[in-house]
Fold each of these.
Amino acid sequence: MDFLTTKGIAASIERIVRNANAFIVIVSPYVKVDKTYIERLHEAEQNNVEINLIFGKEAMRELEKAKFQSFKAINIYFLSNLHAKCY
């Protein structure tokens, strides 16, 4: 497990996703995922890595929902009082 600071967070998240071999847990109050992260998560899924996304504060926007519809197996959870971020 890595705890990240603001500096270098994007590269660190990508590295964590690429190196995952069993599971990925992403905890974030907001969901806004760019194309690169979606590609990396698809690669992880193809390697049989379990993907768990926990988000909160507000419902996921339709644009973001559409990005996850192509996944065969992803666990998505909503917690309305979530304020933390953990990747």
Amino acid sequence: GVSWGEALAMITSRPAEVLGLGREIGSLAPGRRADVVIWSDDPLQVRSNADMVLIDGVQQPMDTRQTKLRERYKDLSRYALPEAYKR
């Protein structure tokens, strides 16, 4: 086991240092390039979700095929579903 801080460094700043990019990426500081993920909870916990993703400072859409389908069908009445879904 490692500490929480060490575990986070193992997935952020340490890989940047190994690649020789530690002064450019891997941590948040003025003048550095940053891809940032805002998590719903502790990013090291499986139950956490990415709530927002920014790549080079640009917010990325969080829509997936799954979320689009969920939104499309979540309010349909049982009678509006295609025949294959009726039981």
Amino acid sequence: MDSSLDGDLSTTKGRPVAWIDSLFVDHAVFRLIWSNLAPVVPGKIYRCNHPTAPRLRRMARRLGLRTVINLRGKTQSGSDALSREAAQDLGLEFHDVALESRGAPQPDRIMRLYNLYLSMPTPAIMHCKSGADRAGLASGLMVMFAGGTSTDALRH
């Protein structure tokens, strides 16, 4: 989902507009109180809904995060701009691996996720908007990449 936000947080009105867009257009107001953070490959890969910047900072400290995987892809939303900025401030690698929220993923995107799995610094957090569809699929794939069974993968 794109908004009218241009992604520039450096202007006088950029940051407040980004927060308004994030909270009310991208529904982050619900994510202020609700998180579905869960381990995928314990100690290595976690999943959640799109974290607000303050929550990303808390998770980075608590889990020792080194990588963020954005399963939504780059958008012009306030949520996207604010989380990218927070990841940069924290020194985290940030990767866009856009997956479809409904429908089968494209094979090249599965391979991109696999190659990222092989090369990324861990621990890593993966997120989509609500942490269900795309994050569930990516979690199942990550379990398989790590040598887990299809039964383990289906739990996600």
Amino acid sequence: MTQNKTADSDSGIDRRTVLKTVGVSAAAATGVAGMNTASAAAGTYTGESYNGRYYGKYVPSSYDGSEAVPLVMMLHGCTQNGDGFKDETQMNQVAEQEGFIAIYPEETEGLNGCWNWFEDSNTLRGQGQAQELSEGIVGQVQANENIDEDRIYV
């Protein structure tokens, strides 16, 4: 997976844009206290599963598989779930506008729905939840969609 990639001149989307958008969307969602005024994105949102772990996947309406697109994995916080995080951040609308695929893995086994990054088995590359997310879920999406390997973001 790409780390610390700041810009890609071919895509028109960069890490800073995604991060700013997430922050603005999350702040807006918090500010309206649950009021959802945004219209639904025009693409397709499906529930998927990898090795028993649920994740939502949004594919923008502009995607036809002919060109590789970026992939953005959204990881919810404690006491949240993937679908709620999707709604709160309104990232599907951003994915629709910018032409990337967004996925929302869900942690249900950790304390309060928290990802278990504090456990030693999940802190090293190639094992635990890190492996399940990066090689498992991302790998499954890559097998089914045309993903640009240089534009995978978490």
